[in-house]
Write a structure and sequence with these properties.
Number of strands: 0
Order of helices and strands: HHHHHHHH
Largest sheet: none
Helix content: 55-70%
Shape: elongated
Number of domains: 2
Distance between the termini: 55 Å
């Protein structure tokens, strides 16, 4: 088991933990008032807000929320009908498809970076695995379908 102090957090994880701490200390909460008491709902919000970022690991978030990872997994699956990992993957794929349809086209390297991939090839591999096409092929297909 990793020592907590040796665990390096990604930027997205640090930002989310800072947001959780700010929510706890703030009298004004932009999110629903009971969200701090609903860890599954809060994690759902953070996965959505981060577009399913590949660098977002839930374990440090669970620790910050003071909940065991297994309990959080169970609560999330009961509420949303899928695992957090599956939901994160679906959100990442949904976001990447959406951003590929924007005109003018967004560079694939920019999309990969937004989703937390350090290498474009890793994003391309992820996208192809789940769609059967590279991001550029998928974009071309969508543009052809839109023009017909």
């Amino acid at each position: 088991m990793k020592n907590r102090q040796n665990e390096t957090l990604s930027n997205i994880e640090r930002d989310i933990i800072a947001e959780i701490r700010a929510l706890r200390s703030s009298a004004v909460v932009a999110l629903p008032p009971d969200i701090l008491h609903s860890p599954a709902q809060l994690v759902h919000h953070f996965i959505r807000a981060s577009h399913g970022n590949v660098r977002l690991r839930i374990r440090p978030i669970a620790r910050e929320l003071g909940i065991e990872m297994r309990t959080l997994q169970r609560l999330f699956a009961n509420r949303y009908g899928k695992t957090m990992a599956k939901y994160q993957l679906n959100v990442r794929l949904e976001f990447s498809r959406w951003i590929l349809t924007i005109t003018p086209p967004t560079k694939i390297s920019a999309i990969a970076a937004l989703l937390g991939y350090q290498r474009v090839q890793d994003f391309n591999r992820f996208f192809r695995r789940h769609t059967g096409q590279s991001p550029l092929e998928w974009r071309s297909t969508q543009q052809e379908d839109a023009s017909t």
